[in-house]
Amino acid sequence: MTASAKLAELLFPDITKTLEDYETIYPPRVLPKGAKVTRIAPSPTGFMHLGNLFGAMVDERLAHQSGGVFYLRIEDTDQKRKVDGAVELIDEVFKRFGLEFDEGFTLQGDKGAYGPYVQQQRGEIYRCAAKALVAKGMAYPCFCTEEEIADLRGKQTSQGANPGYYGSWALCRNLSFEDVEARVKAGQPFVLRLRSNGNAEHTIKVRDLVKGELEMPENETDVVILKSDGIPTYHFAHVVDDHFMRTTHVVRGEEWLSTFPIHLQLFDAMGWQPPQFIHTAHMMKLDNGNKRKLSKRKDPEFGMEYYDREGFPVEAIIEYLMTVLNSNYEEWRLKNPEASYRDFKFKAEKMSSSGALFDLDKLTDISKNIVARMTADEVYEKVLVWAEKYDPSFYLLLSADPSYAKAILSIGRGGKKPRKDLWLWSKVKDYMDFFYDELFFPAQTYPTHISESDVKKILEQYAGMYNENDDQNLWFDKLKLLASDFGFAAETKEYKNNPTDYKGHVGDIAMILRVAVTGKMVSPDTYAVIQVLGKERVLHRIQVAAQSL
Ligand code: GLU
Predict the structure, then answer these.
(1) Closest listed residue to residue 85, CA positions, set 66, 112, 107
(2) How far is the CA of 512 from the CAs of 421, 490, 519, 530, 546, in angstroms?
(3) 43 lines ligand 1 (CB under 6 A)
(4) Confidence band (pLDDT; 50, 70, 90) for 354?
C-alpha cells in the first residue's frame, strides 16, 4: 500500500465504496444527441432573488429545448445560512413561474435516479471522492487552527506575499503519515485540502459559453474541500455533484467566475470531464447615475417576494426576463404575439455577457400589455390568488360574487383597444373598489364650474329618467336632454364654438353622474360602470349624492 493509500484508509475507514461503484450507480445518461442536462442549485437561505429565476429560466430552456433534463438540487452545505421553510419557498417560487423539473428534490421526496438531490444527504459520496483524491496524493488533512491561519495571514501581509494556504505557506502539506496518524488518533479536528499543483504566475484559458475564452491565473491555493465536520465546500460539492448527476451545462451567477479555475482543477484532479459553463451576469441598476449590482440589502426588487407582494403577473416577469436573456426576443415577439415564450428558440450564445440594467418601467409596460390581453376570467383568477394571500377582506368580496367581479373586470376588455390600466394585482382593488358598497367612498367633488344646486337637480332629474335597459345611445341622448335643460351644450362642439353661451357641455353631465356613482373623477366608461353597478346601486348612490348637497 502506498503512503497515500494508507493515509486515505486512515482518514476514511468507513468509506468502502469506490468511485467506480458510483460510476455504476450513476451511469452516463442515455439521451438524444445534443440533449443538455441542467440544474438549478439554490441554497435554502430563505431568500429567492431575480438571479435564481433568471438562471432557472436559462437552465429550463436549454434542457427542454434540447430534449434533455432539468433538475433541482438543494445546496444546503452551509448549515449556518439554512432557514426553516426555505425549501418550501424554493418549491413555491419555481412552481409559480411554471418551471417544471424532470427530476430532483421535491417536497414529497426525491424524484429521479441520480439522487439524493439534497447535498446534506450526499456525505458518503463526497467522502468517497475525497478519499480517492487522498489516495492519489492530491488531497491532505490540515490541522491548522483558526489562530494559526490568522497568524499565517499576518506574516503574508507583512512580507507582501499573496494571501492563502499554498506552497511553502501550506504548513500541513508535508506532514508525515505518523504525525497525521497520531493527530487523528488524538481526535484533533482537521479539514481536507486539495494539494494544488497550480502556479498563480501561470495563466490558464477557461471557456464560458457566453463570455467566450478567458485567461485567468491558475489556482495555486490548497483550497479546503471538506470542512472539519466532513461537509464539503461549494467547490468540491459542485464538482462531485455535477459529475455524478451528469450535468452537461452549469448555469450559475458570475460570482463563481473567480473560483472557476479551482473547479476546473478539481475536475482535472478527479480525472473527470468538466461540463460546459455559463456564468450569468448580474442585473444592474442605475443609482444616482452609477451602474451597480442589484443588491439584496438595498433593492427590494431583487427579491422574488417583492413581485409576489406587488402582484406582478408571473407571465410579465417571464416575458421581461426573456427580453433580457436574448436580444432578439422582442423582435420575435412582435412577429409572434400569441405564441408561448417556449416557442422562441433560445440561444445561450445570444445572452449578454455584461449585466443588463434592470428596467422596472419596461416590466410595467410589458405587464400592462399582458394584462390587457387577458380575459376577465383570467384576471379574476389571478387577482383572487393574490388577494387570498395579501388582502383577505378583498378576497372575501371577490369570491362572494364571482360573476359580479368578472363583470367589473370585463369593462374595456376584449376590444381592439383594451384598457391598459391594470398591471399589478395589488392595484386592482383601487381600480374596482367603488363597485362594492363596502369599499365605496362617496367623494362629492364635482367640477367646480357647476353650481351645487345644478348638480343636485341634475342628479334628481336623472334618477327620474334612468332606465337600466337603455342602450348606450339612448342613455347618452338622455344626458343630452339634461344638458339642454340646464343650460349646457348638448354637443361638445357647440360648446367649443360658443363657450360663453353655455355653463358647460354634455360631458359635464356625464361627469356629475360618474362622481355620484363612483366617488371619483376618473373611472372606466361611465355607461359601462352604471350597467355593471345595476339599478339598485345606481339609484341609491344617486339619491344619497343628491340628498347630501
Ligand atoms: N448554491 C449555489 C448558489 O446558490 C449554486 C451555484 C451553482 O449553481 O453552482 O449560488
Answers:
(1) 107
(2) 22, 15, 10, 13, 11
(3) yes
(4) confident
Cβ–ligand 1 contact at 249 (below 6 Å)? no
Domain 289-372 has CATH 3.90.180.10: no
When the candidates are 1.10.260.40, 3.30.930.10, 3.60.120.10, 1.10.10.350, the CATH number that belongs to 452-547 is 1.10.10.350
Q: How many residues does the chain have?
A: 549
Q: How confident is the model over 100-133, as pLDDT tens digits?
A: 999 999 999 999 999 999 999 999 999 999 999 9
- Measured from the CB, is residue 75 less than 6 Å from ligand 1? yes
d(CA 256, CA 282): 11
CA of 60 to the centre of ligand 1 (A): 16
CA distance linking residue 504 with residue 498, whole number of Å: 10
- The catalytically annotated residue of 95, 155, 291, 296 is 296
For 303-340, write each residue's pLDDT tens digit: 999 999 999 999 999 999 999 999 899 999 999 999 99
Report d(CA 103, CA 117) in Å as an integer: 9
- pLDDT > 70: percent of the chain: 100
What is the domain partition of the chain in residue ranges?
A: 31-121, 125-280, 289-372, 374-435, 452-547
31-121 with 452-547: one CATH topology? no
Is 296 part of the annotated catalytic residue set? yes
Contact 191, 141 (CB under 8 A): yes
Per-residue model confidence (pLDDT) at position 549: 87
What pLDDT does 1 receive?
Answer: 78
Specify whether the CB–CB gap between 87 and 44 falls below 8 A.
Answer: yes
Fold of 125-280: Rossmann fold (3.40.50)
Domain 31-121 has CATH 1.10.3210.10: no
